[in-house]
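Anyone have tokens for Magnesium-transporting ATPase, P-type 1? Sequence:
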Amino acid sequence: MLKEKVKPNNNLADTELVKRVAQQTPDETLQKLGSSPNGLTAEEVKKRLDHDGPNEVGTEKRNTKIHFLIESFFTPFTLVLLLLATISLFTDYLFVPANQKDLSTVIIMITMIIISGLTSFVQNVKTNDAVEDLLKMVSVTTNIRRNGRDQELPTKQVVVGDIINIHAGDMVPADIRLLKTKDLFCSSSSLNGESTPVEKIASKKPDADHLKDYLDYLNVIYEGTTVVSGSGTGVVIATGEHTVFGRLAKSISNNKVKETNFDVGIKNISKLLLIMTAIIAPLVFIINGLTKGNWLNALLFAIATAVGLTPEMLPVIVTSNLVKGSLEMSKHGTIVKKMNSIQNFGAADVLCTDKTGTLTENKVVLERHYNLNMKETPLVLRLAYLNSYFQTGMRDLMDKAVIDAAKNELDVKEIQQNYTKVDEIPFDFERRRMSVVVKQQDGKWILVTKGAAEEMLNCCDRLQIGEQVTPLTDEYKQRVLNHIDDLNQDGLRVVLLAYKNNPEEADEFNVDDEKELILTGFLAFLDPPKDDVKDVLRKLKLDGISVKILTGDNAAVTKSVAERVGLDTKYIYSESDFAGKNTQQIKQMVEQCSLFVKLSPETKAKIIRILKENGHTVAYMGDGINDTPAMKTADVAISVDTAVDIAKKSADIILLRKSLLILENGVRIGRRIFGNTMKYIKITLSSNFGNILSILVASTFLPFLPMLPMQLLILDLIYGTSCLSLPFDTMNNKYLEIPRKWETKKLPKFMFYFGPTSSIFDIITFALLYFWICPSAVGTSYAVASASQKVIFIAIFWSGWFIESLWTQEMVIQALRDPAVPFIKQHSSALVMLATIGAGLIGTALPYVPSLAKAMKFGHIPEYYLLVVLALLFLYIGLTTVVKHLYLRKERFLI
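Reply: yep, here.
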């Protein structure tokens, strides 16, 4: 039974509990939390999960179906429709004589609200479900001890009282009282903004004078903390919203949504629409009020015009595009964590990545274990095995390679029996080495260190060849470096190995003990290039993506691998090459160079930041702790499912396999999503702009409204519904070969080119209807017509413009979706073709169905008018093709 816990209905962390726990002994904490060193039982876990809920930090916005339903029906579009329906209820039903009551207009508008709302609702639910399903494919787990057995379980299943094991690279899943630590260094930047790692020690209780500084307790770690090195075991004291992190933020800091170019583009479009609406809607209201004399009708028409100017299907089409793209990407091994990052993924023109596992097989083998005479010897492998086997920090592929090689050449069981671990000094990216202290059965201690060449040579003062130990001179240091360079030229990555017998005994060893070591040998590792990587890099180059390698490895190894896969090796810069350079010089260096070596995590992030300042959209692919700063800086962060927790948490996109081929496929899908989204935005805005120009002309010269508000809204709804097919359209290969950014500043130009093109044919239609079609059908011109004839005249006019306007809007999709001539050199997908032509046919049928025509106040227009519309469409497509040609003389892209 849980004796001391946070109340589940309290959304704030219980800091008093933290203070009490920090002052208790480990045994007291376990007892009060109803736990033990062996962890909880399955039955107890179930009780606590039922009581406290899953280990998740809630967000301000709950993605419930009720929320989506409310959000879907309360949009500007549906609210305007509801306003119009309400006004129509009063003007057509409540305040009219019994024989004139008519609810058909109200029914149609309510139907439109239902269709629009349900479409948006279904799409939002699909989006949410798709994201959740995709994220389930990404493993975020925690090592939990239950029933005495350590096991990897989903992080959200962590409960109060669980025993948690943590290692380098882990994200701390809950608030934890440490029970045991070993050189545990953690970064708590998500809580206190301090990125410098702090050592955590389970046995150190807080001083009475510093109890208020609970974030600095050495024996407590909090959710959101990153384990930089070392290891530890602790008991969970709070989960989910009851953690300190849950109090400070409703979502983990590195999951904050970055504002992408996509978001900026949508905001800019919204601003543009607001400006246009603020200008045009009042203008339409005033013109119609003055020329027609009916200010109520003018107001309703102005509101409908404003709605017509707004691409109300944009949210639905954008989310539909993103969901379709993310599902397609998942089939190719790419999981999208943050939907709005897809566009940045497609827009990326620079990909920064480490070489290991990206250019290479990520199957490291220990090729050679030489002594200083460049001869293989069991002593070197034995020392390497002691270092790799007994360490608990950042065990990487090289450690695995050492252990695998030792199993084949040494009696590893004998080594494990004869040695016990005393301590370790974890790896960090400044020292670039790590040490293990072990004890032999005879009581002798030995410190074994391996690491990068320069860093190792700095802490060695002797060398061993055979049984002989001699001083390490500067001349011999240069000889060692020459050997390493020769191995690097063969594509081998080399670390040096050293040791010290009987180091001064201490409770806790630290970096100060890594001195006066005896250099003993080389460990040379091979990670061969992937077979297909040369071809994939060629494809990425054709796609307009420059690949830059950012690695902590040395220049020789990196150059060897780069030459084999076809990367430019003319320039190779290391971190030291940036020293003393001004901003302009550094910007030029990062542009011209493809290989950056011996980089710290901070310098990786700096290079990405400079590339962004140079105007690039940068993707970064990483899987380790050292990649996190770069991932947070990049426009789109890519990781792999086998990455450390902090890398997966920082990622926007996760690959199920570390492969550039998967990434290249994902980039093309991202570009197709962007293209189909831009089709809707550009085509709809230009089409709507053309309609507005036509309305202004018609409102100025016609003695009646060119179309009823309800008719204008239905026209807009039919067109918008047909546009729901656009996410399923194709893009030509030339479009997919070029990275593209949102350029909202080009939208007005696009609108001013193609909007008036449709207006020309609207004005021709107005003239044909007013001076020919309607007089022919009624038997007289409007000027001398009787009141009843004028009603028929106007109704026929509305039918005629409704049909022509809808067809031009549908056909402009076919005309502007691609630079080539429509229906001859390019055509849409079958679904888009069906949707656009189908929408045109439905709209054409409305004036000919008596009940619908009556409800919408359409008049019966002569059938021969359809031939007139067909002829106008041919001319319209022809003129649009000419305008496209003129537009592309000065612009690089159409869409």
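The first strand starts at residue 141 and ends at 146.
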